[in-house]
Structure formats: C-alpha cells, structure tokens
Request: fold
Amino acid sequence: MYSQAKVIAGGLAHIPVVVAVFYFILTTFNKRALKFVEKTKVKKTEAKVAEPNKVAVSKTESSKVEAPKTEALKVVKKKHADVPVNIYRPKTPYEGTVIENYSLLKEGAIGRVNHITFDLKDSDPFLNYVEGQSIGIMPAGEDANGKPHKLRLYSIASTRHGDNFSGNTVSLCVRQLQYEKDGETINGVCSTYLCNIKAGDKVKITGPVGKEMLLPDEEDANIVMLATGTGIAPMRAYLRRMFEATEKEKNNWNFKGKAWLFMGAPKSANLLYEEDLQRYLTDYPDNFKYTKAISREQQNTKGGRMYIQDRVLESANELFNMIEDEKTHIYLCGLKGMEPGIDEAMTKAAEEKGLNWSELRPQLKKAGRWHVETY
Reply:
C-alpha cells in the first residue's frame, strides 16, 4: 500500500501533464474558433458588397424602362455637390468694399434699381461663387428693438469672374422696396441701405448660398428664363457666361443651345441691362431669343395689360416644343406674385399641346429641369 505522502506526491506529479493537455485542447479550440470567425466575416463582407450591387443593377435596369429622363439627370445634380456654400456666416461675415453703385433705370422709369459691385479680393478664405447663387447682406444699424438688422439674400447678377473678369468681385441688382402703410411710405431697410451706399463703403457679406438655380453643365442645353424686375439678376449671369467672349475663353465652355428670355417690366425705361441683351441678339441670333412684356405700354389679346404670362401663352407651341426636349431647363425668378400667373399660362399652353401641366411640372422638378426662386 502506498503511504499518504506517496499518493499526494504522485498526484502533484500529474498536474503538469493535465495542465499541458488542457492548454493543448484550449489552443486548438481557439485556433479553430478564430478561423470560423474569419470565414464568417469574409462571407458577411461579401454579402454586404454583393447585395447593394444587386439593388443598384435592379434600380438602373428599372429606371431605364420607367423613367429614363429622371435617371439621366440625377448625374447632373451630383455635379453640384462641390458648389461653394456658406463660406461666410452671419456671426463671421466678410466686410467687402463697394466698388461702384449706379442706377440701372432710364428717365421716366418707376422706382429705383441699382447695380452694385463689391470687391472680394481681400476675403480669406476667398468668397467664391457660381452663377445662380445668392449672397447675404447685413445692413448697418439696429432695428426698433436695438438689435442688429437681419440679413437679406440677393441673387448674384455677375458670373464667377465678375463684371471685370478678374475673378474677385460680385455684383447685385437691387430694387429699393417701397410700400404704403397707414398713409405713410415705408422704405425697405436693406434695399434702401444698399441703394444709398457709396464706393469705398464697407458692407458685411455672407454666403454664398443656393443650388436651386444653377446652370446645367452641358453646352447644348436649352435655357428658358422667365423674369420680372430684378429677377433678371441670375439671368444676366447666365447670359454673360453664355455670350460674353472673355467669359467663354475663361470657362472653356461654348454654349451651343438656345437661350430664351421672357422679361416683364412696367415701362420700357424699367428694362434692365437692355444694351447687353440687344448686343447678344445681334451677335448670337441663332442662340438667343428675347421676348418682352411691358405692362403699361403693351396690350394682350384681350385688350388688357401685357404681362409675362400673356407672352408665354402667345409662344405656347414653340415653348412647349422646347420643354419636351430633355435638354431644356426652365428658370423662374422675380416677385412671388408672378408664380400663379405663370402657372395658369403654363396650364393653358400645355393643354394646347395635349399635355397636363399639373403632372408635367412635378416631373420637370424631379428631373432637375424646373428652377424657381421668387421672393
């Protein structure tokens, strides 16, 4: 028989063996478990990669059959992703210097409309922008509650290269807001401030903002523009980009489509940038068409005042022939009150072509071809 001491000693002698066996089993299990996990991860990763491809193919194939126009134009929208936005904000505006401020109206015009240009060369970061965007203006002074005036947004009237093509200015087209209240004439705070500033003055600027009114990149796109008053601001930028020789050289972009401007004004003296528009008509007769609606000087077919919607109706057939072309974009800018009239005219014009405007307009909007900026 073994003594108790020998039994204990023998048991202790087997402990290293048991530990070794246990370690071997544990190591082998862990290796197999790790291999299993890695294989599972690979399969899951493959599944995650493969699944979206299946969906993407399915969507593409489906869109080719059901809505080729919309699908094709989504690519154009993606190109706008790198457009500069909010380089300067209300808390940290850029103080630009006024270069010039002059009236755009002829003798006998109604109201007050000015063209104002600001120097941007000292902005850091540089305040760059593209055609169709807006900037914010923070008027000097305080409101009735002793707080700084809120900024107002204005459509940019110049191309990204500025009126002098140097690439470091921005221009606005501003109408002084005036209205009657309780027998008193009220002047708009920011518009009056802008119309009164002088060369050398400093103005707080924010922005740029906006992607709704951007031009398509295609050189053969057709551009229909509907504007009233200072709503011509972005249209001026578009037309300068299309037809100014220096702009074309700088952009390496040669417009080959058709641009059609419908312009509304109360009097001939209120037509803005008329000399430039007439020059474009002379130099590019195959690419530019200009239709004016002068409400106090022209009559529509019913004997009433001629408004922009009346011109749309007159040109219904030609206009909707263009709209049916996938390459045509429509831009609407001006007072918000012009929208119902344009909508009614488009409805009637569409009917003459056997189209339903209430269905067509959302389709154009979804396709990125209907652009509206009213105020």
Remarks:
- The longest strand covers residues 94-103.
- The chain has a mean pLDDT of 83.
- The CA atoms of residues 101 and 197 lie 7 Å apart.
